[in-house]
Amino acid sequence: LWIFGYGSLVWRPGFEFTSRKVGYIRGYSRRFWQGDTFHRGSEQAVSAGRDAGACTWGVAYEVCGEQQVAASLQYLNVREAVLGGYDTKLVSFHPRDKDAGEPIQALVYIATPQNPSYLGPASEEDIAAQIIVSSGCAGHNVEYLLRLADFMRYFCPQVEDKHLFSIEEALFALLPCLCHSEKAPEEV
């Protein structure tokens, strides 16, 4: 079984796997339009929604053997479906490696506008402002955004994820407002 991740699964899958590949799925776009007050304490979490012309980059994990498959599905069904409000879909995953051959069928967790946690579009500035003040049991939402942006820059440098990078830029624009101090910083 292959499982595709496009959010925190790219750096913290939380389950055992046999191998992994960087690549993309077609027909979906990554958006911070999903509510999640459990994992990151944010009203804005990452989701992928139908978008005919889009590609979403991430990591596909191969899980093998009955025990590994069962454990990963049990874990992800709680993490993504029960707590996150995502639906599961089978999609064609296209590995970045050109020698990988044909696309691989992979399971992905997708947020739909019909689920109760779906929030829909918001401006990048509003999303960034929510991210800055949100944290939950899985950590601070700033970490989530920055790790995802770093993944895209390092593993997919040819891809421009405008939505992701615009939120990151809006977050950096807000940080000086939060870090302002009357006292000059000490020399290092």
UniProtKB/TrEMBL annotation:
InterPro entries membership: ChaC, GGCT-like, GGCT-like_sf
Coiled coil: none
Enzyme class: lyase
UniProt xrefs under CDD domains: GGCT_like
Endpoints of the signal sequence: none
Listed GO biological process terms: glutathione catabolic process
Lineage top rank: taxon: Eukaryota
Gene Ontology, cellular component aspect: cytoplasm
Pfam families (UniProt xref): ChaC
Entry's Gene Ontology molecular function annotations: gamma-glutamylcyclotransferase activity; glutathione specific gamma-glutamylcyclotransferase activity; transferase activity
Enzyme Commission identifier(s): 4.3.2.7
Keywords attached to this entry: Lyase, Transferase
Catalytic reactions of this protein: glutathione = L-cysteinylglycine + 5-oxo-L-proline
Entries under PANTHER family matching the protein: CATION TRANSPORT PROTEIN CHAC-RELATED (PTHR12192), GLUTATHIONE-SPECIFIC GAMMA-GLUTAMYLCYCLOTRANSFERASE 1 (PTHR12192:SF26)
Family of the protein in this entry: Belongs to the gamma-glutamylcyclotransferase family. ChaC subfamily.
Role, per record: Catalyzes the cleavage of glutathione into 5-oxo-L-proline and a Cys-Gly dipeptide. Acts specifically on glutathione, but not on other gamma-glutamyl peptides.
Name the UniProt record assigns to this protein: Gamma-glutamylcyclotransferase
Organism encoding this protein: Odontophorus gujanensis
Gene symbol of the encoding locus: Chac1
